[in-house]
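To: structure desk
From: M.T.
Subject: fold request, one chain
Message: Could you run this one when you get a chance? Sequence is below, nothing fancy, just the single chain.
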Amino acid sequence: MPEDLEPILNEYGFSGCVSVQTDQTETENHLLIEHAMRNSFIKGVVGWVDFKAANVEDRLAYYKQFDKVKGFRHILQGEADRAYMLNADFKRGISKLKGFGYTYDILIYTDQMQFANEFAAAFPEQPFVIDHLAKPNIKDGDLDQWARDMQAIAQNENVSCKISGMVTEADWRAWKPAHFTPYLEVVFEAFGTDRVMFGSDWPVCRVAATYGEALSIPEAYIAKLSETEQQKAWGGNAVKFYGL
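Reply: Done. Structure tokens follow.
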């Protein structure tokens, strides 16, 4: 809940956050909106709508009354149809986002990356962000194919990437900071410092790490960047992407 997160953000020097959906209902949207309205540190909300619904444009228009609703997400990683994002009805819904100024978070596993590339390329003016580096198999050190697919997706200049959710894809009890360095290198090389943003994946990260431990993973890498680039990674790029 917000009261659990606020002291953590204060402890680590974050002035705000974006709250992202986990339940594919509009009921949760209103819970997240209520949290944001009552807590000024919640700067934005990423919600959910049924993009395949005939009335999707009306639903998107409805959420414009809430200033903190910045974008939407669908849990593509959980769909039996791994190419769900290429469904004609789903794409019709996605095509309505730009007109309202909304972003879209792409939540996928690595087996969906080629579909995501085609998906992003179909909407070159739509701002997209890949959540959790597309969840590479860090536990087993799988890197090569994921890296090639990530480099391909990054060719779409409308796509950014969140460095988040990494500890949950590693060995929960035996991960070491060095396990993540090759993945961070690929992301920063592919997307550059203008299209990478930190995400905590709190509270999900707690299965494998504390907030501070999860934060320390990108912290060591980002510390090597210039001061301006560090500011972008820690917040500036998120502020720009979500219009916070």
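Reply (cont.): The first strand starts at residue 17 and ends at 20. Let me know if you need anything else for the meeting.
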